[in-house]
Amino acid sequence: MVGYLRSLLDGGTFAVALGPTVNVTHINITTVCSSNRTSFQCRCEEQYGWSYTICMTHGACDSILGGSCRCINSFPTNGEHCQPQTELPVLYEYQIFVEVRTSTEIAYGLRSILNITPFPIEVSTQFNISEANITTVCSGDESGIQCQCEDDYLWPCEKCATYGECDGSTTSTCGCIKALPMDGQYCQSVHHQNFTACPPSTAPPLLHEYVISVEVNISDVNQVNLVLSIMRNIIYPFQINDNVQIDGVNISTVCSPSSGGYQCRCEDQYRWPCGHCVEYGTCDNTTEDTCGCINTVPPDGQYCQPADELNFLPCNDPTTPPVLYTYVISIELNTTDAAVIELLRSTSYPVSIADAIQVTDLNISTVCSPSSGGYQCRCEDQYRWPCGHCVEYGTCDNTTEDTCGCINTVPPDGQYCQPADELNFLPCNDPTTPPVLYTYVISIELNTTDAAVIELLRSTSYPVSIADAIQVTDLNISTVCSPSSGGYQCRCEDQYRWPCGHCVEYGTCDNTTEDTCGCINTVPPDGQYCQPADPLNSTVCFKTTTPPPTTTPIVNITTPTMPINSTTSGAPITPTNSTPAVTPTANVTNSTTAGTTISTTTVTTPPTVNTTAPPMNSTTSGAPITPTNSTPAVTPTANVTNSTTAGTTISTTTVTTPPTVNTTAPPMSFDVIMSIELNRTYTDDLDDKSSAAYTKLVEEIKPVLQREYADITGLLSVSVIRFRNGSTIADFVVQTTEIIPDEVASANTNFRIAIVEVAPPIGLVTATYTSPTPLGLPNRTYTGQNMILMCNHDDVNVGNINAYEWTHNGTKINTDRERFSISHFRVSSNLTIKNIIPRDSGLYECNLTGEIISFRQTTEKAIEIYQAPNIQLQRVINVACEVGKIITLECCVQRPYTIKWLLGEAEKSSDNVLRNGENCNTYSYTLADCSSPITFTCKVDDPSYEKQTMMNIFTGAADCNDDLYGAGQEGDFSIIRCDEGQEGFKRAECVSGTWTLLEDTCILTQINELLINSKDLVKSDVAAFVANLNETVRQEQNEIVNSSETISAIVDILENIANITGNVTQDVIEGILDTVDAIIGDDSSESWAFLNAKANSSSSLLASLENLADRLVGEFDFTTDRILLNRTKFDDNFTANLNSSIIIHIPPTNLTNVFLTTIVFPTLNNVMPAWDSNSNISNATRNETVIDNAINGAVVIAQVNAIILNVSLSYTKLNNSLSEFPQCVFWNFTLFSNLGAWDDEGCTFISDINNTVTCNCNHLTSFSILMSTNLPPKGVREALDIITYVGVAISLASLVICLIIEGYVWKAVTRNSTAFMRHVCIINTALSLLIADICFIIGAFLAKKPLENPGEGFEIPDGPCSTATFFMHLFYLALFFWMLVSGLLLFYRTVMVFSHMSRPTMLGIGFLLGYGCPLIIAVITVAVTAPGNGYIRKDNACWLNWFDTHALLALVIPALTIVAINIVIVLVVLFKMLRRGVGDAAQTDERHTLVVILRCVIILTPLFGLTWALGIGTLISSGTGIHIAFAFFNSLQGFFILVFGTLFDSKIRSILARKSPTSSTGSNNTTRSTSGGISSQSGLNWINRLRGRRYIYHVSETANSNTCASESFTNI
Predict the structure, then answer these.
(1) How do beta strands 761-770 and 854-858 pair?
(2) At what angle do helices 1274-1309 and 1520-1531 cross, to 10 degrees?
(3) Buried-most residue among 608, 752, 961, 1591 (CB within 10 A)?
(4) Burial group, residue 1027, by CB count within 10 angstroms (0-12, 13-18, 19+)
């Protein structure tokens, strides 16, 4: 059959017409599918082929050539068929290499995943992954790095030769090399590469070795340790490039300050050359050939040399040192700059000036400063004045036996203080009595574990002068206390012992001597410490033994007090024995100097010490000096004294930095918790330590433990601590002073073998060491900052670490989380958390899993994250130039923070106010000049957060001005604060006299924190997170719907939730839909319009909901105010009415157990834009584009777990007035560069019956219907706008002119009742139209149509709009009813010729009809529709409601009725006129009658509102002509009234021209003029000429002349 069809098609010709524009020219067979018993094969005909994607998806049954095949092994389910060969896409194949840094376990897991993954994997319609393999695995150990190729992959031969092979090479290449190639190349596939044979090995390349010395200036011990840690963690050799590598890095030399200079010590395996030892002096014992320490920093830049590489000359034959000449040079320095003096003090000496000259030292000798009535010149330490100067100029301190240290002038001879140790001062004639020295012993307790601090105290040279009269003569550590099992141990240092009473009372932990002990088992509560051994007379103590302790030092400092003279009144001077906690102290003194002022800053970090100080020598009036005991807490102190300097100020800073040393302390003990699982049934009594079963099992295990772990170095004890369920898990602790991993591993293995005698073991012994040192807590941390936690096991050797894990509040921290990153080193692991939030508070734990022992370290307490200050202010403010004007600046921050205003660096006086839960600060700035800009800073007192306000000053008038953004000129920007509880700002630009919002970043702080948290959300936390999100959104809903940025953040949160893999449970989807319900209401439409103009948030929201709906499980329903979810299961077919607005029907499918998920959104038209695939949309213009379509149905998401190609949807229209061009559409996320738009591909419109649109689609996704908004094309809209604006302006002006003219001619034209009533009709008609037009303009201003004004508000203000609508309704009705009054008057005077009605009667009837009837109708309309909020439209315009209550009928029905009545009146009047003229009719009379009829129609139709009939035409037709005609005639009604109702009245024209009318109104006879023209006496004859008038008819009334009827027809 196929062959017959093929021959028929090949031999035939076609010219089949399917329509006037469609012809079938030829038919070809493309695809032939046939069964091969088990499946189908689909083959392509000649010139046709399958695409590469189809071939890979369904499997090719022939060769794939040129990116296509001719046969596939299945029937395509999507209806695809073979394509012409010329249309097949070009296939490009790429090899992509991805480098993954991970552990061995993960690499094995990745290999397994790749092995079981079916390929190809379709990434998109044009992109497939055909294969994925691991090619190269690189690993490092102590010997270096090896890179091993996987199966079917090898290294090119040149790599093997360059880096060296680590396996047996084949004839062509190798599979392993000894380095990581620096060019990023990896192993190559043996199937894709032709490897050439490796050439025979040649001589190794010539290697050049360089020793590079690097000097690092570091004084911080922590930084030194960090450098050492980094160096230890680097695996050597370290490859820099193919030809350069670093073999090793070592520290050779360490230089540190020492008394009087520097000492440079060599590290292990490094020595100084002998020449340096001789030249600079040694500070250690020299060996036979060199030394390890010299007393300076070599000026030649040389460092210690490797001892095993250099042949040092012996030091036994030193050369004769050169002759040295020493000069003392005095220099007077006049300066007030402390930095200069600091430079002098901080300079390292000696300083070489030339090869043979160097400055060995620099000292400040004399400091002169102003004093009362003159100057004082004081000597620095080690300098004194000669006695002659003391006597001649007078001393200002106590002189010693030979000299003084201060004189009362600046010596005119230019002499300065002299060195006290170099000169023999002559005795003074009047020496004073030597000072009395007082010695105090002060005990200070130092809480530290830093050996460097203790070493600093030990290495400090004493005495140390604290002040002129006080110095520390000595410092000794007396007592060291450290934790021990169950308590503390306090050991005495050498030469110190415990009193025997303490030994007896607290128990000794060492062997007592004959009179005392050196260690007790607690920290004495009385605050006493070890005492010097010499002065103790103790009774004999009993001997006891206890375990050894660890370390906390206690220090004794002996401080002699130098003499001072002072006069003290009041309280006594009390020497103190104290135990303070001492912290760094900084004393800064700046004094006024006439010569040289020396200011000294001393920074020390003393430990807890015991100090003995001598009494002070002073003259005291008052109470005596009494020793007391106290325990003060000394905190950091900064004393600053500033004064004017009249000479030279030298400021010196002395910083004592502890050297890096090793301190010998008692060994610390380590508790290693170990566990082993035993193949033994666990019983509950094993949880009770007092039970017999527990005791028995412990007694069985304990001997094995003690035997197998006895050989561990430093073992103190090993004991069972508990049993746990899981078979039976035994936990035991090994206490030791040293951890050697190999010994522990060996003991574990032996114990596992030996424990068989108790119970067979299951698995290996696990060991964990928990560090007693907690993770270091960061300083006070605020949201938005980054936090780093460091885990380090440098204090204990736990062996190789295989895995690193961090937990937060017991939950593992995944390394793939966006804000969390973990970096690993050999002995440490660092956790970095970016942009922290309050949820990051809590406990953190570091677990390092080792081959033998695991390491655990935790935070001591929960880390607390504080909310960062949220400073809110107007960032950019524009101010008109007006000198003297006061501008008020306000800055607010949430409580409890406080803020202040700064201008430059100066703090400004301002007022603090508590407003809406915020601390606000207002500053009133007086504008002094018009220089611009001025920057003000609002700063938080603590912590240091600040923001700035920039004030721009402009001259001239402001173009924009409102209460929100302030004033500004065209092109100015204003940036204002957000509302309370929000972060960000709003930026607007002054454009065309209005502030236009450009950027709104205001977001609720709570939502922003949830957004940050959602980026690292894990599946287990989703349910709780969604509940928290929903609760927050519901609480803050009123603020959220008005904040576009917050809505955008919620959309991003939902997208992050949707991206988490796994099934979606019912509680999660319900929480999400409840959240979405809050942001898609009518009150959020303005925010969504702003978002759609800037981003694709609405498309992202829909995509997230589709993603979640696709992963739902179970059957359930859920309903909110705006959303309906239904998930159900069906077999074969399905039909349901989802929410009375959408009916879905799936015809029979022969499928079973199909799950259908539908989510209906009746209000999503507020969210989704209405543009479709044919819209002209771009990112730059989409907020200005008028869309010709509207979403006119609910949006429904439909998802099934099967392939369904036929589904019908029936929608109930949202707006029944929209009926043109219905489109059945789905949301296509890929259109407009993934911006998204509605697309009708695969969907077909079926019918539009009874406001229900039926569609049929061949796929399921997010559906809705679009319908034309009936808006004219853009060009027509612009023309209509121009016609409306110009016409309304002319109409309003015409109405005003009409009223003025009527007032001007009123008396002259209202002499009879008919004329009077006619002009009353004209005036009230004009007045009603004028007021109605004004109300129309007000209503248009209140609400703009969003389709024509994108970005404007959708909703209208109810109160103002209702008022405007009521008056529009009233006066438009009045317009029609006064037209009715005019028609009735015409009818009355034309038909009822002989009837007469008085003027008051006619006036009463006219006003009753003209205003009474409209008022009644308007009030009834309000009363009926307003209670149900159905009086006016809810959006788009201020006008009567149509869709809900049909209130618009209250205008339409009366208006159409009046128009119909007036038409009937016109016909009756014309009929009467023609009957009156029949008797006189002739051929010329007939022609005249036609002219009269025509002119009547031209005049009466616009005058009585017939042009409103055109409005009905616009409702039923979208034709361009009828729209333009209606806009033209309707906008010019005022002009028509002026022309046809006023100016065409000949009498009015005559009055305006100061002429009487030419027509006679008093004759009872009809006069006919045959004149060929119009009298030139009329001043307005141009109107007559314009009308082409040739004849004038006079119609008289029997009772009255010049009646309304006669005026209406004689003045044509």
Answers:
(1) parallel
(2) 30
(3) 608
(4) middle
